[in-house]
Specification:
By secondary structure, this protein is of the alpha/beta class. 44% of the residues lie in helices and 14% in strands.
Length: 497
């Protein structure tokens, strides 16, 4: 009785291999047919027939083959490589444990009432953040220093640290003067001159460097910047290098009111930054090859557009209002995103199962026999690692449930949220650094990065590892990776209790 199931598994495995390698199977079959048909022809006869061809015909065949090859390369686009990346590593003096948060809240009674303090502490305890997350100096003042100077100081601290880190790792291959394009993203705080000019001034970049400064895109801006860099590199001359810097500056954005939906960013967001060097030439020691990039914008829906919204409360205090439906909105945006991303990355077998389930559902509806569930594709067949933006415990839960992922699949996201908090657009790089610090990323492994942001946006970016990080690689996890993963406490879903 045990043999039929085993036979079914073998048959299913063979079918999956055949479907996933359909073109290879067809090519082998065609080649075999050609060889079999040409077998009676001796090699001497083939050479004689080739010599009998007029020279002009042979020349035209060579030119045609070269033209087809060139058109194929032009259509495919130039490959883009991640040469190296670096992250800001905060010092212990910036830590803000829960006890410190509670003490500081009580020192501001004229800004936040007791009910709001209790709500914020319950929120913090359920957030998935640990006791080692860090905030800028401005948050340690009572009241918080929301001045322009404080914001500039924070920006210089986190941005320069991340850029210093990436240039230290590429000291022998890429120097500041080698950067051709600079892309910096920061959602809310945008001073004059902008951050891109600040980086140019600090590192003495060339006068002809092209700079782009992105703002207002929230936590999705890091992968939006990668997509922008890819578009630039695919049309730029070979050897072009792009420096991408992703951060969020908190100092000027501390909310001092009592609106619960606007207190959430105070509890979730923490200081952080990441820098990435990309190139359209295979650099010596390049770490990753960029794969598919898909961006989905759902701002046409009013609820999505106002899901992450900067505004003033009824007392004139400015802050970011996060909708209670944020996780649901993220799930809807992800569903639309993977509808476009899935066909580009999933194996043929998974796509066939999706198509079959859609056909079955349509037939059942037409026959009036009910509604069948669509097959949920297994993205673990396309990726070994998945980095979900650490936007909050609810967002990670929603993506995990929607994609059918295991706790191991989302470990990097949960541990990044626990150790560093929501570092906005840089969070997916902290997650990649976690995986590498654990020694889990091997050559040939595929990584899927997913980010969400104001708008509402959902972005997917695929990478292929070309060269893993060495053992003991220095990074933001260097001093604490041995303590992770940690067990997160169970929480009551009702935040109002």
């Amino acid at each position: 009785m045990g043999s039929p199931p085993r036979a079914n598994v073998v048959l299913k495995t063979v079918a999956r291999l055949a479907v996933n390698n359909f073109f290879a199977v067809v090519a082998v079959a065609v080649a075999a047919a050609v060889v079999r048909r040409a077998w009676p022809v001796r090699p001497e006869e083939i050479l004689d027939r080739m010599r009998a061809l007029p020279p002009v015909h042979a020349l035209m065949a060579v030119i045609l083959a070269a033209g087809v090859a060139k058109l194929r390369r032009m259509r495919r686009g130039r490959d883009v490589y991640l040469v190296e990346y670096g992250c800001f590593r905060p010092k212990a003096c910036y830590r803000t444990p829960f006890a410190t948060c509670l003490e500081h809240a009580h020192l501001m009674p004229y800004l936040v009432d007791e009910e709001s303090v209790a709500f914020a502490m319950r929120l913090l305890e359920r957030s998935g953040l640990g006791e080692e997350t860090c905030v800028p100096d401005a948050y340690h003042y009572m009241p918080p220093d929301r001045s322009l100077r404080a914001s500039r100081d924070e920006a210089e601290l986190v941005i320069f640290a991340a850029v210093d880190d990436v240039f230290a790792k590429t000291a022998h291959t890429v120097r500041p003067r080698d950067v051709d394009v600079l892309v910096v993203n920061c959602s809310i705080f945008t001073p004059v001159p902008v951050f891109a000019d600040m980086v140019v001034n600090r590192y003495g970049l060339r006068a002809d460097v092209r700079t782009v400064n992105l703002s207002g895109m929230g936590c999705s801006a890091g992968l939006v910047s990668v997509g922008l860099a890819r578009n630039l590199l695919q049309t730029a001359p070979p050897g072009t290098r792009v420096l991408v810097v992703s951060t969020e500056i908190l100092s000027s954005q501390y909310y001092v009111g009592t609106e619960r939906a606007m207190l959430l960013p105070n509890c979730l967001f923490r200081m952080g930054a990441a820098a990435v060097i990309l190139s359209n030439s295979p650099h010596p020691g390049a770490r990753f090859r960029l794969g598919r990039v898909v961006r989905t914008v759902t701002a046409a829906r009013d609820a999505d557009y106002r899901c992450v919204f900067q505004e003033e409360d009824d007392k004139g205090n400015t802050g970011i209002r996060l909708s209670k439906d944020l996780a649901t909105t993220a799930g809807y945006a992800l569903k639309n995103n993977i509808a476009a991303f899935g066909p580009l990355v999933l194996p043929a077998w998974e796509q066939l199962l999706v198509a079959a389930s859609m056909l079955r559902r349509k037939l059942l509806l037409m026959s009036g026999r009910g509604k069948a569930r669509l097959y949920r594709p297994d993205f673990r067949t396309a990726f070994e690692h998945i980095c979900i933006h650490a936007g909050g415990r609810g967002v990670i839960d929603e993506v995990q449930h929607g994609l059918g992922l295991s706790d191991d699949d989302v470990e990097a996201s949960r541990m990044t949220l626990h150790r560093f908090g929501n570092t906005s657009s840089s969070s997916v790089l902290y997650e990649l650094a976690y995986l590498e610090a654990k020694g889990r990323v091997e050559k040939g492994d595929r990584v899927w990065m997913i980010s969400f942001g104001a708008g509402f946006d959902c972005n997917s970016v695929a990478w292929e590892c070309l060269q893993p990080a060495g053992h003991g690689a220095d990074g933001p996890w260097a001093e604490c990776i041995g303590r992770y993963p940690v067990q997160l406490p169970e929480i009551d879903k009702d935040i109002n209790k």
